[in-house]
Amino acid sequence: MNLYNSAPVKEYIERLSGKESNKIIGITSSSYFTKIGKNTYQGVFYTKDILDPLLLALTDVELLSEDRIINKETALAHYTGLERGNYPLILHNTSTFNPVAGATSPTDGFVQRGIVDESFGTIRAGAGQTTSVTDASGTTEFTSSATSNQFRQMTRWIWCFNTASLSSNAVISSAIFSLYGLDKANQFAGSPSIDVAGATPAATNTLATSDFGQCQTTSFGNVTYSSWNTAGYNDFTLNASGITNISKSGVSKFSTQTHDDLNGSFSGVWGSLSQVRFNHYAADNGSNIPKLVVTFTLPGMLAFEI
Question: Between the CA atoms of 226, 228, 232 and 238, what dihedral angle is there, to the nearest 10 degrees?
Fold first, then answer.
């Protein structure tokens, strides 16, 4: 006898299928994906041995012989007739966050020290002089001056994301920060990279020149110059420190800096009026904007409503 033709399971499937919020949009060999509001959830399937006793109570029919649940009907049957309070389903939810254009929280923009003639250490530690939160694109970079071993300009970017919707009980398993690349240049030889780190700007709806000194120096991940995509997204997979930097109750704040800037020492071959730069879009571009994709779990949450 086919399990899916049994009256109890058919009834539950019909009840679930009538709700738009219960639509299953994808199936893998060990999980399913469903849309709830604007979020996509991934629910883990249990093995046949765990599921058998649950379904037998409903149908008195043995489950088919698959080692894993692999189709929509079984997925629906899987979640019906089970006691909510005793069913420890863990959902893997992926949410995408973006900065907002202009002087609105959560903003993005650059902070810069420039038109100087200083050593690398001095320009790094100096005060910011210019900032903007309305540019559609920009560069994370530094530029040399015409004086031997001196530097003229250094630019860092700060990126804010309102991640308060994660909620305090979310357990973050991974996160990817992404910038859409436009161009790049490396006139110092060597092997430069662009790093993502934390930031502590005074506000999240605008930036001050003093925020140049509020870009932190623990790398959360990097993209090398050779890997930098100038016509697509560049993904920074956040390490454990980067995941810890994500706020579950407010705005998450990040910065991008060249690796030499973050590391505190110039590693290239100096040349007059030369530059390392990574060009990218910002929120004010309106499309291909920065994004933070967070994957997390919500223990004990059921996907389906009956």
Answer: 130
Please, which residues have CB within 8 angstroms of residue 199's CB and are 6 or more apart in sequence?
158, 159, 211, 214, 215, 216, 253, 254, 255
Last residue of a domain, one of 54, 87, 120: 87
Walk along the chain (306 residues) in steps of 10 and give the mean pLDDT of each run: 41 48 55 58 50 44 38 47 36 84 97 98 98 98 98 98 90 94 96 98 98 98 98 98 97 98 97 98 98 79 36
Please give the tally of structural domains in the chain: 2
What gap in Å lies between CA 271 and CA 174, rounded to an integer?
40
Of residues 181, 159, 196, 171, the one with CA closest to residue 294: 171
- Domain for residue 136, yes or no? yes
Q: How many of the other CB atoms lie within 10 Å of CB of 58?
A: 18
82 and 130 inside one domain? no
Q: What is the pLDDT of residues 97-117, one digit of tens each?
A: 999 999 999 999 999 999 999
